[in-house]
Amino acid sequence: MLKAVTLKEIERIFEILDAMGISREAVVILLRTEHPGRVALMKDGKVEIIVERDGDFAEWLSGLRARLENLMDRQEQQG
Asked: What is the pLDDT of residue 4?
């Protein structure tokens, strides 16, 4: 169980964002974890990332790129 997001986790999330060409300024990463974790578009257009609390972080992280791509696809279809 991951109770809080530390710099270690943030750096790993940044690796994925950087590889996808997503600006770090366009993302908000909450320092608290929740169940379920999620990736969502905020009203201001930024991407909110909330890390899964109850599962394995590495496993959650392995699906982050797909969740981000899915979010971007839905945003393009709506806009």
From this structure: 96
Contact 64, 13 (CB under 8 A): yes
d(CA 36, CA 44): 22
39, containing H or E segment: strand 38-41
In the chain, which residues have pLDDT < 70? 79
Count Cβ neighbours within 10 Å for each residue of 36-61 and write b for 16 or more, e otherwise.
ebebeeeeeeebebbbbbeeebeebb
How far apart are the C-alpha atoms of 1 and 46, rounded to whole Å?
A: 27
Match 């609390």 to its residue by tokens: 53
Let me know: does 47 contact 22? Beta carbons within 8 Å.
Answer: yes
Domain ranges of the chain: 7-74
| Cα–Cα distance for residue pair 8/38, rounded to 1 Å | 19
